[in-house]
Design brief:
Layout lengths: L1 E8 L5 E8 L5 E10 L7 E15 L4 E2 L1 E9 L15 E13 L4
Antiparallel strand pairs: 1-2, 2-6, 3-4, 4-5, 4-7
């Protein structure tokens, strides 16, 4: 059983609070690479290589529901209007492992 609690507070009194409890499933491992180009210098870019593991613990689309507890609260002048309670939860994905390396192109 995995328990996660997130309490995020901004200097402007906006807050996000998340509580989640779920049963771990089989992790899917993935790798990728992306080139991010500079807006100021379009010929300059960095190469980002990453590796991660993901676990879809809830998905309405594919019928997965291993979540036993979930709560989400947002408050503050910027966040409260965005999360007014009319939203519908469609998926929760856990990312227990993420590694990124950044490279500059050979000159």
């Amino acid at each position: 059983m995995i328990d996660e609690t997130w309490d995020i507070r901004g200097d402007d009194s906006n807050t996000l609070q998340v509580e989640l409890q779920f049963t771990r499933g089989v992790l899917a491992r993935g790798m990728g690479e992306a080139k991010l180009y500079s807006g100021a210098k379009p010929d300059f870019y960095r190469i980002y290589k990453f590796e991660q593991a993901t676990d879809v613990v809830r998905s309405t689309a594919i019928g997965i529901h291993r979540v036993s507890k979930f709560s989400f609260k947002a408050s503050g002048s910027k966040l409260a209007p965005l999360f007014d309670g009319s939203q519908q939860l469609i998926a929760i994905t856990s990312v227990p492992f993420y590694s990124r390396t950044i490279y500059l192109p050979a000159i």
